[in-house]
Design brief:
By secondary structure, the chain is α/β, with parallel strands linked by helices. It has four domains: about 60 residues, no CATH class; about 170 residues, Ankyrin repeat-containing domain (Serine Threonine Protein Phosphatase 5, Tetratricopeptide repeat, Alpha Horseshoe), CATH 1.25.40; about 230 residues, P-loop containing nucleotide triphosphate hydrolases (Rossmann fold), CATH 3.40.50.300; about 100 residues, Helicase, Ruva Protein, domain 3 (Orthogonal Bundle), CATH 1.10.8. It is about 50% helix and about 10% strand. A hairpin with a 7-residue loop joins strand 10 and strand 11. The chain is globular, with a radius of gyration of 35 Å.
Amino acid sequence: MLKMSGMQCMRSNFRTIQRAVRLAAVLARRSVHGGGAGSSNDGEGGENEGERFSRARAVAGIATIGVALVAADHQYNEKRFFKAARLGNLQEIRKQVEAAKEGRGRDGGGADRRHALGWTALMAAAANDQPAAVAELLRLGARPDLQEKYAGASAAAQQQGLHPLEAMQRREDEFCASMNSRASFLGWTALHYAALADSAGSAAALLDAGADPTARDHAGRRALHYTKDPSPTRDLIVEHAARWEEKLAAAAAEERRRFPLEQRLKQFIVGQTAAIETVAAAVRRKENGWADEEHPLVFLFLGSSGIGKTELAKQLARYMHRDDPAAFIRLDMSEYQEKHEVAKLIGAPPGYVGHEEGGQLTRALARRADAVVLFDEVDKAHPDVLTVLLQLFDEGRLTDGKGKLIECKNAVFVMTSNFAADEIAQYGLQLRREAEAKALLRAKGTVAAHGGSGEEPPVPEAASGETLEVSRTFKDSVVRPILKRHFGRDEFLGRINEIVYFLPFSRQELLTLVQRELLRWAEQARARHAVELRWEGGVLGALADGYDVHYGARSIKHEVERRLVNQLALAAERGALARGCCVLVTAASGRLALAVRAPRQTEYTPLDLAV
């Protein structure tokens, strides 16, 4: 009887309201025209005209209230819905879900309708140990892995314009009275609540519906963290988590076979073949169990600014953790140049301001102990900060300001530095010249071998296709003394698994960088201004000439903005770029020029932007 569709329910509601309105109209007419058989217009005991109108108004008012009550009974009521989930009232849950489907609003409709303060009915049912309500909500379409948005009474009250006491009261009345309403539950799923409530029935229903037992909350904890030990709920989650992780591991292994790390990184990183191969080899050892499990993996990326060091760390995190933003931690070490800023990294000791907040690094590692951590520009950090990092690299664990031990042996740590940047850049340029000279000699030898045959001699091989190797002599005689002079201790350098060298771009790589930058601006011109941007081949070379070995790809970005985007902005300001037009960029003697083709025309008109 209660399983009617949303449209059937709406039609039934409409017919009920129609009957109530007709009844009210009949009562009102009878009141106005005399009402009963014994009524009289005149004489003793009869009602006068004013009394009949008063009675009519009263009857109409009662009928209106009745209609309103009937209509309200078939409308979504947030308070009743979440109380029903809390108490396990299946009939009310079904009715509210049907009503919610008719008025889709915040976060969708139906069984996934969120409370104004952030939770779902499925979470409320699981938190209150109502397995029947959990199963019914899942049957009605509730998704098991939606995450909680309640961040504590103060934050919730601020978002909704409430007093914190009111937010606390609503949390207790419409969610769960036994939980701390002041605490944040950000990122919790229904399975987290089932684990905390030790509700084996709710956990079983959620897991059978496909709930992820490895899902983490905002603090980086899985549902298993909140279970009692021992308990049937814990055993159930452990069993499903093992199966889930086995499937994920098999899928990840298959993906690595089909799509190796080198291939993924080369999609996003221009050049740096040797650096990519070095990082990929070390990560492969770690992922496949051929690495030291007692220590984390530590890299030191060396090279000029804008050469791809930070981007490689980002893409490594994306590959290893499937684009999970919490799995990439970036710390700018220029913020840790003073001795006292060690507390900002690991947390202030007891009795000091900020003790309860913890440190930036320890908080992040507590949430995700297997993250990729980037220490950007580590050469700028205070020596006491390096001492903390040495403990982290050597033992794979860290003690925060509260005395809590954080294990992070599965983390990957990447340090970037501009140490020896000039020396590496000059050495890289020398390697490029040597590679080009070898390619030229090979080309000449091939031409001589084909001499007199009439065949077309092959084009000389591009030096950019070769992997340039940094010699051991250069590493030991040039780079290592610079590193040792700054870090001052061999044990710190000894804990670095791989020192990765980033060399200057080749000519072909520069052309690729320019092409990518132009494509980005072409997309922006199309999306923002409805202008199509095209260019001739010579434009790439003209812009690539602006490369500065000390600033890497950033110098290309600035060159495109200075020489091309400035002209486009000036042309737009003068009204020369109408929506729907096409701009052609040409190069002559190293100078760029623009020509515009108006919509529905075939010829380009050169633009003279001289002041």
